[in-house]
UniProtKB/TrEMBL annotation:
<feature type="compositionally biased region" description="Acidic residues">
    <location>
        <begin position="108"/>
        <end position="124"/>
    </location>
</feature>
<feature type="region of interest" description="Disordered">
    <location>
        <begin position="100"/>
        <end position="124"/>
    </location>
</feature>
<protein>
    <submittedName>
        <fullName>tRNA adenosine deaminase-associated protein</fullName>
    </submittedName>
</protein>
<dbReference type="InterPro" id="IPR023869">
    <property type="entry name" value="tRNA_Adeno_NH3ase_assoc_put"/>
</dbReference>
Length: 173
């Protein structure tokens, strides 16, 4: 299964981006170490792992600590060794979040679409980007949007964060 892994790190109010090789990693801590190595002094580091145009995993480190992980679908753990390593230990399904969501403002551009793809089983911490302007419901909606590829979701997230150009440059290499 092919993958693309892009790390973005916030330092001194700006963003840097680097492609990260996950070849040979044996556990989630090793993945976190590779993310830390991208920019050791970053106050915030994110790793976007897109696999086979199907799965997205987002990992977050704050000041190099407190690893948080979100996966767009738990099936990734069954599909590949890397998927098992990234999301295999995540037991928290996040599909029930739409039931506790507050009523939406009438000007919201979300339609009557379900909060998550009924075929997918998102797992982990869907709120890991909430303080950056992407609450759990928005992240789930991005992942569930019909026809959206993991690269599209990563681009949407990076657009909100202000680092879309840095990540897109990595794709062009």
């Amino acid at each position: 299964m092919s993958y693309f892994a892009a790390a973005v790190a916030r330092v001194d109010g700006g963003w840097t981006a680097s492609e990260v090789s996950l070849r040979g990693v044996t556990d989630i801590e090793e993945v976190a170490d590779r993310l830390r190595d991208v920019e050791p002094d970053a106050d915030l580091s994110l790793l976007f792992v897109e696999a086979d145009d199907t799965y997205l995993v987002v990992l977050r480190l704050d000041e190099g600590e407190d690893l948080r992980v979100f996966g767009s679908d738990s099936a990734y753990a069954e599909e590949s060794r890397l998927g098992a390593l990234l999301v295999g230990d995540l037991k928290t399904s996040v599909t029930g979040l739409e039931e506790v969501d507050e009523p939406r403002a009438s000007g919201d551009d979300d339609t009557e679409q379900p909060a998550v793809d009924p075929e997918a089983d998102p797992v982990g911490d869907a709120d890991l980007l909430a303080d950056l302007g992407i609450p759990a419901q928005k992240l789930l909606a991005l992942c569930a949007h019909e026809g959206a590829m993991p690269a599209d979701v990563t681009a949407e997230i990076c657009q909100v964060l202000g680092c879309v150009d840095e990540v897109e440059e990595l794709r062009e290499v």
